[in-house]
Fold:
Amino acid sequence: MERGSKFYAGKANTLYEVLDDSGDVLPNVIEMECTDRISAGDGDKKDVVEGKGYANNLVSTLLFKKFAAAGVPTHFISEGTTPASKFVRWAVMIPLEVIGRDFAAGSFCRRYGVEKGRAFDPVLVEFTYKNDALHDPLITDDAAVQLGLVTKDDVDKIYVYMDVINKVASDFFAELGLTLVDFKVEFGYNEGTGELMLCDEFSQDTCRLWDADGNSVDKDLFREGKSGKAVSDVYQKLVSMLEAME
Ligand code: TMP
Structure:
């Protein structure tokens, strides 16, 4: 498989067509490249963080392989043509962000007035409706089904997958001495088979990780006002931990 033309540049990822050996565009496969672009606050705040694309792709690829081995279908096919990219199955995305929380942080604390760090067991699952005009509001699973965003059967599957994803990712980060606080994932349908699968990414952009002293090792540094080198350093810190583990 070879990289074809760029057809989409999102906030943090760029998507490319994929060509077969004769140069024809392959249906149902794309190459997804994690970039160094970073944004927060509905895209108001933007910067470039050196090495972030590589770090995110590394973490996401390791985890997606573990999720698949634990029985969660994913869009991942194989490593891509650059260290920050991968080949993935083309998906029809469900317009929901699915958030898993093991500890209270971020918008949960603001919304319910609870203290940061309160533990949840089993993982607390929330849904937000991906809709820029509405600023991605929180949505109940019932409303998501009634609005036709997802079927009831698939909501049931998502809850099961969220438990597995949470367990696999928590164990993975615990081995590095990090606590998985919360995370956001997205699901879609395999365009060929219609199968529900985990898509997008699982990275420091999309989860909160605390080290033993409670310091953030994730995008929260950027959300809280740090930029450039300081943010790059926390992405690199996780890369170094992973390299030391090999
Ligand atoms: P929150 O506390 O701001 O709702 O975030 C919960 C988790 O979801 C946190 O790990 C960050 C992640 N997240 C995203 O990846 N993208 C988003 O747009 C939002 C709002 C949160």
